[in-house]
Design goal:
alpha+beta; Nucleotidyltransferase, domain 5; Actin, Chain A, domain 4; 5-stranded mixed sheet; 11 helices
């Protein structure tokens, strides 16, 4: 159990797929799947994080394993609050002084959605809550100096949302947020396998396929992977071999939606900043950008050099951590 004194500051990347917690002075101290297992009869939380994720799709009737965040926003307020409380207690211990917390949110959430995040964090034990937009946190985490008067483009592909922003002088000039990201890739795989092979597979199998052989740009060598699912005709378990060329077919549509959104943001970017971007390139962050060939596809379609940031999955959390250093300045502004 980590223990800290008065005035501890915590940064949380409240992702649809993963929650990453950063503590000032300690770095990243927790990385857990955003899954909660709840007893439907009593409402008690039975497991959170990795333990709960292992229960997904495998629980009896009275236990519900849920993902309380969908498409970057809170879909189940009560469960999100319990999950936050669990993670804050795990990181901070039971302490006299509540922590100040900074939480990442997608760039185009509504005031109601912002209030839900703030309320959930306050109920979970925060002393004060600050919000930071994901693309700005991702840019800071990727090591970009966002304070300069020059354009930087960040494409942050998470589990629930893809956030695209052109950042200059510490703020986003043009941004877009679309609900096509890691989860939509998984859904596309489930649909494709069902349509082509007449087999029903779960989200976890779809994710394994995406991680191991998924691609959105033709591979030089076709790779394959065996999966198990339920045959929709006989109703019995069946094993099939899936090729990466099939994954390309399944994933190209959501990938092109992201490319089109990037294109749309570039069209709305002021000429001076657009010149900076074509000079510096586009930065990709978030776990979703690790799909094989997504950077090459984006580079081919935009004609701009595309770079994948180091430690892409942690970029947003690291950026939040760096922003925590300036919390006193933020408090002074209010």
């Amino acid at each position: 159990m980590f223990k800290f004194g008065f005035g501890q500051d915590v940064g949380i990347d409240l992702g649809t797929a993963t929650v990453i917690v950063y503590v000032k002075g300690k770095g990243i101290v927790l990385r857990e799947p955003s899954v909660v297992a709840v007893d439907s009869n009593s409402g008690d939380v039975l497991a959170v994080g990795g333990e709960a994720r292992r229960m997904l799709g495998r629980t009896p009737g009275n236990i519900i394993a849920t993902i309380p965040l969908r498409e970057g926003v809170i879909s189940d307020y009560t469960v999100t609050e319990k999950m936050l409380k669990y993670f804050i207690n795990k990181v901070c211990g039971k302490f006299v002084f509540s922590p100040r917390i900074m939480i990442c949110i997608p760039s185009q959430v509504t005031e109601v959605e912002k209030k839900a995040v703030i309320d959930a964090a306050m109920q979970a034990g925060a002393r004060k809550v600050f919000l930071i937009e994901e693309p700005i946190a991702a840019a800071i985490g990727a090591g970009i100096d966002i304070a300069k008067p020059c354009g930087n483009m960040v494409v942050d592909i998470g589990g629930g949302t893809t956030d695209i922003a052109v950042i200059s002088l510490g703020g986003s000039v043009v941004n877009s947020s679309l609900k096509v990201a890691g989860d939509k890739f998984d859904e596309a795989i489930v649909k494709y396998i069902k349509k082509k092979h007449n087999i029903a597979i779960g989200e976890r199998t779809a994710e394994d396929l995406k991680v191991n052989i998924g691609c959105v740009y033709p591979k030089i060598q076709d790779v394959e992977m065996d999966i198990r699912g339920r045959d929709l005709i006989t109703g019995l378990p069946k094993t099939v071999t899936i090729h990466s060329s099939e994954m390309l077919e399944a994933l190209i549509e959501p990938a092109m939606m992201i490319v089109d959104a990037v294109h749309g943001v570039l069209e709305r970017t002021p000429p001076e900043l657009a010149a900076d971007i074509s000079d510096k390139g586009i930065y990709m962050t978030g776990g979703g950008c690790l799909i094989d060939g997504l950077d090459r596809l984006l580079q081919e379609k935009t004609g701009i050099n595309v770079m994948i940031a180091q430690d892409t999955v942690s970029c947003v959390a690291l950026g939040t951590g760096k922003a925590l250093e300036n919390l006193d300045v933020l408090e002074g502004k209010r």
